[in-house]
Amino acid sequence: MRYVFTIRYGILKNTSDFFSTFNSLEKGDQVIIRSSRGVEFGEVIAKVKEIADDTPIENLGEVLRRATSDDIEKQEKISNEMIPVEFKFCQKKIREHKLLMKLANVEHLFGSKKIIFYYLASGRVDFRELVKDLAKEYQARIEMKQIGVRDEARLLADYEHCGRELCCRLFLKNLEPVTMKMAKNQKATLDPSKISGRCGRLMCCLRYEDKVYEDLKYGLPRKGSIVKTARGTGEVVNYDVLQQQVTIELDNRTRITISVSDIIEKVREPLRQKEMMCDQDCEKGHDLE
Prior knowledge:
Elements (H helix, E strand, L loop, with lengths): L1 E8 L4 E7 L9 E6 L2 E14 L9 E6 L2 H28 L5 E7 L5 E7 L7 H11 L2 E6 L2 H8 L10 H4 L9 H6 L6 H4 L14 H9 L7 E4 L2 E9 L4 E6 L4 E5 L3 E6 L3 H12 L6
Parallel strand pairs: 2-5, 7-8
Antiparallel strand pairs: 1-2, 1-4, 3-4, 3-5, 6-7, 9-10, 9-13, 10-11, 11-12
């Protein structure tokens, strides 16, 4: 019998499933794994399931062993001693070669002679001579990986406005697109300083409840609709998605706020002009990725 565990590993906090032939691992245990990149240091997140010995495992990495005290000491040496030196040396060579790139971080894999240098740049960079210098200095396989500002925040930032650790560092596997339309759906302030994360882009948490808001909005009459209520007929001028309430301006110009369930009948859809204005507003919710 084999066992599948979810492991967090790497400087970008990758999470993937790995198989093991032993079942004694618990959440939080530190382990040595073999991933597609090589032998790495990781942490158990969860036990997923048991699988039969004849189950295909081509897409799974392998848990080699629970980390020993020597393994932990080696990983600490890599993090605290080797990586800072490699970072400074690479920065020095970037300046010498006058390359238009910004070094963000360095990852030195646990069990192989492989070093990954993460950098930001506005375009393509010819770093062939830089790689030669790095390979000669460290006698290791060198990989240069270009990243964006969201990955830079995942690498370097710690906490968000809410006081919690960044979602992209804590649990998010993929950084999905976040749009202004999501902020508008939630009636969030459109002040960039309040809805932007540490990366300077729209906060990932705007995605979390977007589907709920879309579903709740589906049952609400659109602005400009004419509806009939027990208190009179009027035009919908506003709505509260979460409370499922609408504000209606009656024929006598007074405004009332009622539950959507109190609407007796929808008399008329919004006028075409208002529909076009709404559609234009929706189109402005472009992807800011």
